[in-house]
């Protein structure tokens, strides 16, 4: 082994150790939040549930909002609600089927005209079938991926180049604990959410490898099942460990993660430790853990 290679290995070990030390320090210190006043924030699936709650929090922080949802009535109701709460005039609603590339291109152009350059993109919209694998049709599977995965690519494809040219921007993906841990009755959903984890991690690596300005931030959020009605039959043997969580709480944790430029979080945070444990134990042990905790969802009828 050459002296040059030995030096490179030493540098690598130093960088790895420094990264661990930085992570430990960040656990105990209060990382300052960035100011997003007057920043333009795009949120998909904003007409209900988590998307609506995130929008309300960002509005209170002074952000200018572009709220996208396929349900025009719900979306307009949230827009008016936010205007009433905050008095902001910079909240716009857009009815758009984000699985349609042409429709996405049109709404992106309209947002540019209404609000200007986008600072934060939050890909939140999602659907779930919650069916056993043998009950899934090809149509079901395609729809799940179109909404939960492909739409992320469409919107990132429009906004990332401009963020790179400006040297600043933030892309946020709402994945799920089902994007980290496989769950029965959610095969297509898990696959689509696992894909988002891969998308965001690979994109992070590509941006850094290409030495893109560090002003581009990526954040992935992985919540447990929420009380939004999306999962009709959630179950948890130990609700104090794996609760069915309120969307307002997830929204608060999501906004905090964005303001602190965190890369990946689970909500609640302790779920990340169980995910890590599940990756290092044998399959039989993992199955035994899943059976013991009995956390998951029953199939929709």
UniProtKB/TrEMBL annotation:
Organism, as annotated: Medioppia subpectinata
Function field: Catalyzes the reduction of all-trans-retinal to all-trans-retinol in the presence of NADPH.
Family per record: Belongs to the short-chain dehydrogenases/reductases (SDR) family.
PANTHER family referenced in this protein's UniProt entry, alphabetically: PKSB, RETINOL DEHYDROGENASE 10
Keywords in alphabetical order: Lipid metabolism, Membrane, NADP, Oxidoreductase, Transmembrane, Transmembrane helix
Gene Ontology CC annotation, any one: lipid droplet
Annotated protein name in UniProt: Short-chain dehydrogenase/reductase 3
InterPro entries: NAD(P)-bd_dom_sf (IPR036291), SDR_fam (IPR002347)
Protein origin, superkingdom: Eukaryota
